[in-house]
């Protein structure tokens, strides 16, 4: 075999390989250009909430963006304390926490009302006890005065007549 023919065969193989690589590179370039175009369309769809995500973006990206949009809406509803928006936009776990928080707030209001009622009942009971103690002290003082003014016998003992008994019984 002639060295020149070997060189021609090698050049042919290199030319075919080079042509194959060139075809692959051009095809890959157009494929990547299509992906870049799709990603740009996806970025536009992400930037504008009114545009649909599904044809422009891959499903995983569309799911993540939809979740982020829902989370932002839920966060806004929580900040505004808009219960209708919370129920519409937030996931079940957040709704459960909000319901628990609202129930605990209601329980707190109820407990405060019960405490206020108990305080008022205590104030009333103390007032009644003070009035009762004042009445008892007044009766005791009156009875002590009656006993001090009662007639005495020669040995110093008290002798209570009908008026004295009446005064002791009706202070």
**Distance N to C terminus:** 151 Å
- Supply the helix-strand structural class: mainly alpha
Radius of gyration: 50 Å
Q: Could you report the average pLDDT, rounded to the nearest whole number?
A: 86
Low-confidence parts lasting 5 or more residues at pLDDT below 50? none
The shape, in one word, is: rod-shaped
Strand content: under 5%
The major sheet is characterized as: none
Number of helices in the DSSP assignment: 5
- H/E order of the elements? HHHHH
How many DSSP-defined strands?
Answer: 0
The helix content, as a percent range, equals over 70%
Please give a structural write-up.
The chain has 171 residues and is mainly alpha-helical. 82% of the residues lie in helices and 0% in strands. The protein has helices spanning 3-47, 59-80, 83-89, 92-149, 162-169. Helix 2 runs antiparallel to helix 3 (83-89). The longest helix is centred in the C-terminal third of the chain and has 58 residues, at 92-149. The model has no long low-confidence stretch (mean pLDDT 86).
Gist of the model:
This protein is mainly α and 171 residues long. It has helices spanning 3-47, 59-80, 83-89, 92-149, 162-169.
Question: Features of this protein?
Answer:
171 residues, mainly alpha, 5 helices, 82% helix, rod-shaped
């Amino acid at each position: 075999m002639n060295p020149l023919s070997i060189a021609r065969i090698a050049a042919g193989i290199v030319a075919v390989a080079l042509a194959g690589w060139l075809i692959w590179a051009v095809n890959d370039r157009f494929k990547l250009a299509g992906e870049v175009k799709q990603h740009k369309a996806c970025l536009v769809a992400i930037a504008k909430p009114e545009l649909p995500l599904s044809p422009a973006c891959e499903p995983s990206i569309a799911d993540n963006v939809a979740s982020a949009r829902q989370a932002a809406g839920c966060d806004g509803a929580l900040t505004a304390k808009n219960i209708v928006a919370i129920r519409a936009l937030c996931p079940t776990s957040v709704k459960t926490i909000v319901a628990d928080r609202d129930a605990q707030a209601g329980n707190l209001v109820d407990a405060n009302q019960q405490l206020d009622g108990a305080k008022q009942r205590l104030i009333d009971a103390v007032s009644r006890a003070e009035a009762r103690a004042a009445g008892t002290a007044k009766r005791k003082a009156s009875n002590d005065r009656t006993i001090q003014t009662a007639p005495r016998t020669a040995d110093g003992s008290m002798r209570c007549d009908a008026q004295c008994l009446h005064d002791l019984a009706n202070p």
